[in-house]
Amino acid sequence: MKKPASISMDHVLLALRETSEEREIRIRSLFDFFDNSSLGFLDYAQIEKGLASLQIPPEYKYARDLFRVCDANRDGRVDYHEFRRYIDAKELELYRIFQAIDVAHNGCILPEELWEALVKAGIEIDDEELARFVEHVDKDNNGTITFEEWRDFLLLYPHEATIENIYHHWERVCLIDIGEQAVIPDGISKHVKRSRLLLAGGLAGAVSRTATAPLDRLKVVLQVQRAHAGVLPTIKKIWREDKLRGFFRGNGLNVMKVAPESAIKFCAYEMLKPMIGGEGGDIGTSARLLAGGMAGAVAQTAIYPMDLVKTRLQTCVSEGGKAPKLWKLTKDIWVREGPRAFYKGLFPSLIGIIPYAGIDLAAYETLKDLSRTYILQDTEPGPLIQLSCGMTSGALGASCVYPLQVVRTRMQADSSETTMRQEFMKTMRGEGLRGFYRGLLPNLLKVVPAASITYIVYEAMKKNMALD
């Protein structure tokens, strides 16, 4: 059977309809499935136990062979990078034979294509046996085998994935009557418990925003000040007006935004992906960027009134040492300025989404490549390196679009009718370029603690909710 040439991981990602980030999460989850003791590496006993939980009998010696194949440096343990290299090689191998069997190249293996491949390999199989084979692999019961189903069936098979070996693997393992117990762990499939992941992410975001609320309040107050004001004088002013509570003013609304914004963005992204990708929904990096940007714009528009009220709450003067009531502030905006006022500054907010995401993504990938080349000697970066790259790229992206954020905040805080152009010219004439970067320091200081806290809380929530 002739192997297709020039198969790359991009082909695998397209076949799985998966981003590289989603794939990384999936592989990490599978590694954690075996590493249930959280040792950071796998030994033979862990692999044997993991395969046993998948109802693969130990007498088939797959655990020994899988351990040997993964343990590239022969040190008696398999770290994540070795495991990742095995997964990379195996998925490429599985994609090659999948493509060879899928002679119609329609993205799935039909029963007749599988039968033809088996016959060419000298394996005689009757219709009933073929139907059982397809039924076992075809998890959605639509009569065909997608690459994701093919991958799930063979990912942990440590031997060469020839059609003969695949058939004998099915004979030995999959004809055993094990009922409903033989399940692929959640980490193998990208269709994980999304609602619980969303909840974990929402709680992580809420904790992170609360922890960095003082920096957020400081940033917003500095952004709206026309005259030069230093960080320390502004901190003293906030303390003088409201004491410690002043640094957390508006945080309630900020936290309330997390869940709806994440949910709307996620749903919009899932709907936009197939629309942008066309038939099959397979999209590349630029299309994913566009879909993500559009989803972000939809989410931003939906929750924008909350953001405007938060800004007003953070920038208004305390009355008698007390912040205004949220409902009264909202009512005053509605009565005095009308419903349109809740969308002041939306345009600069929206036009900054795509540039920010593009700069963030490009910087992240560049930093990952540099770390892989100069620090890790061609091994894949681990979670800490990825977190560092993400924080740096996020800070760079935020800095590049920061002038738009300043214009947006000033439009939100201004009760008079003003356009983006008017606000831009007013800032330029009165303060020069420096005015567009007021509050940048506390904004950058938020990056490290916000990302770190989000990551730590998210990982803890995943463990508590059995999402690992």
TrEMBL record:
Keyword Nuclease: no
Pfam families in the cross-refs: EF-hand_7, Mito_carr
GO biological process, one term: ADP transport
This protein's record includes keyword Ion transport: no
Domain EF-hand: 58-93, 94-124, 125-160
GO cellular component, one term: mitochondrial inner membrane
Gene3D superfamilies associated with the record: EF-hand (1.10.238.10), Mitochondrial carrier domain (1.50.40.10)
Classification via SUPFAM superfamilies: EF-hand, Mitochondrial carrier
Solcar repeat intervals: 192-275, 283-370, 381-464
Lipid bilayer topology: Multi-pass membrane protein
Family classification: Belongs to the mitochondrial carrier (TC 2.A.29) family.
PANTHER family noted in UniProt: SOLUTE CARRIER FAMILY 25
Name recorded for this polypeptide: EF-hand domain-containing protein
Species in which this protein is naturally found: Brassica campestris (Field mustard)
